[in-house]
Specification:
Elements lengths: L56 H4 L15 E4 L11 E2 L1 H6 L10 E4 L9 E4 L1 E2 L1 H9 L3 E4 L4
Parallel strand pairs: 1-3, 2-4, 3-5, 4-6
Length: about 150
């Protein structure tokens, strides 16, 4: 095999379209540009986003409005004041909070917030606690346990 005998693989090289070379070529008369109008003229260039004078989509949309984080963890909120419904020294679990109507379902993790006061010791098990809620529960003689949601 010699260098002058090498040739590209069949079908790998395509001839360019020669427009405006007569009707017999298949790309004559209008040269594949259709009839008349701005787009058929030489030098035609429309800037990106131009919609013929109509207010472009990019200008119709509101600007700088942030975004929605699809990975955000949505918590079911239970306040400390509502935990007084449980007896002194009892263990408060997410299942008990749902059955008492404090949280909607076990699908969402439960977070305890410090609104209100707890006036007797409780063992509270939840997925998250605010620092103030944890301090108030421990000040009342209770205990907090963080459990993993899932």
């Amino acid at each position: 095999m010699r260098q002058d005998e090498l040739s590209p693989a069949a079908g790998s090289r395509k001839a360019r379209k020669r427009i405006g070379r007569g009707d017999g070529s298949g790309h004559g008369s209008y040269s594949g540009k259709g009839c008349k109008g701005q787009k058929s003229r030489s030098g035609y260039r429309m800037r990106p986003g131009f919609e013929g004078g109509q207010l472009p989509l990019i200008q119709r949309l509101p600007r700088k409005r942030g975004f929605t984080n699809i990975f955000r963890t949505e918590y079911s909120i239970v306040t400390l004041g509502r935990l007084n419904a449980f007896d002194s020294g009892s263990e408060v679990t997410p299942e008990k909070m749902v059955s008492a109507g404090m949280a909607n379902s076990l699908k969402q993790p439960i977070k305890i917030l410090a609104n209100g006061e707890v006036d007797h010791p409780l063992v509270v098990k939840a997925n998250k606690f605010s620092q103030a809620a944890k301090a108030k529960i421990e000040a009342a003689g209770g205990r907090t346990e963080e459990i993993v949601h899932g």
